[in-house]
Amino acid sequence: MDPVAIKTDDYVWVDVRTPSEYSRGHVPGAYNLPLFTDGERAEVGTVYARQGKNAAIERGLELTGGRLADMLRQGKALSEKGRLMLYCWRGGMRSASVAWLLRLQNIDLEVFPGGYRAYRNAFESLLRQPWRFIVLGGPTLCGKTEILHRLVQNGEQVLDLEGMAHHKGSAFGALGQQPQPGNETFSNLLHVQMERFSLQRPVWCEDESLNLGKVVLPLSFHALLSAAPLVWIERPLEARIARGMKEYGQMPPQLLSACLAKLQRRMGGDRVREGIAAIEKGNIAQALENTLAYYDKTYLFAWRKRPGKTVHRMFCTEGTDEICRELMLFSSGFMQTNQTVICQP
């Protein structure tokens, strides 16, 4: 069984690792049915190292014997949701032991070859496929996320990286967002999403730096985005400020000031103080204009250094529906050029 060919959505995944292993990162949607607690796993590992495999098996049975009936009941309940895919760290004794137990009830299941480690490696193999990415770039508050959401409604393949990371990328990006996932969890979510996509159709996503708040994009994935063709979106400054007022105008002033203070080293103390003073006076629009001037320079600098080419530039005064129609018309021509981006190992 080739791990790369196994689709996450096709199974009910069961993680038999310890609770702490599961909490650090797991297959999205997987249920935790641990064979051992964290302490028990450490004890069995010590017995294995000192006394060998057979002694470790005996100790494992002593520790888990009283829980096997309950594990069997839980496994049977999970099997009513669909075919099970069991995994541990390397596809070894833990998953094999739980599989043996559940098969006593003729539960339909498989064991993921190579375990969770192989699942993580499968994502790197997925990235090396010939993807057809189209990346949306442009200054802050030009509406890229709204455009991506509308493309989804039009049936396009879209990766909403900021939505998955719960961060909008700027110093204000965490405002109003849920807590951010860890890097491993983010990578797994990205894995599942890309599994659902066809290589024969374009994949849209927003141009991002390596960091989205505390989330660091997988390096190989970020390299793929950086090399992909770019569509540069621009809007009048007044429209961007209006969008900013809609997103941030009702936020508590102290939160806005705290976010702006984070930019002091890069933006300059005088400009940050001017922005905070404007916020304290209730002039959020003025603070936005000052901040956008800084971000515009930053985006332009990154744009000029970007290795991928800008293949289309749009100055937008019309609504999102009209923009999406133009983008989809552009993408049909782009697909005819057979441009693909492959992440090198």
Q: From the helix content, strand content and strand pairing, which structural class follows?
A: alpha/beta
Q: Give the uncertain stretches in residue-range form.
A: none
In DSSP terms (H or I, runs of 4 or more residues), the helix count works out at 16
- Distance from first to last alpha carbon: 22 Å
What is the radius of gyration?
25 Å
Q: What is the approximate shape? A: elongated
Mean pLDDT: 90
Describe it.
- With 345 residues, the protein is an alpha/beta fold.
- It has two domains: 3-121, Rhodanese-like domain (Oxidized Rhodanese, domain 1), CATH 3.40.250.10; 128-336, Rossmann fold.
- The protein is built from 16 helices and eleven strands.
- The strands form three sheets. Strands 6-7-5-10-11 form a five-stranded parallel beta sheet, sandwiched between helices.
Summarize it.
With 345 residues, the protein is of the alpha/beta class. The protein has helices at residues 19-24, 38-51, 53-64, 68-79, 93-103, 115-127, 144-153, 161-165, 183-195, 219-227, 237-248, 253-261, 264-267, 269-280, 284-305, 320-336, and strands at residues 12-15, 31-32, 84-87, 109-111, 133-137, 157-159, 203-206, 211-212, 215-216, 230-234, 310-315.
What key phrases describe this protein's structure?
345 residues, alpha/beta, Oxidized Rhodanese, domain 1, Rossmann fold, 2 domains, five-stranded parallel β-sheet, four-stranded parallel β-sheet, 16 helices, 11 strands, 12% strand, elongated
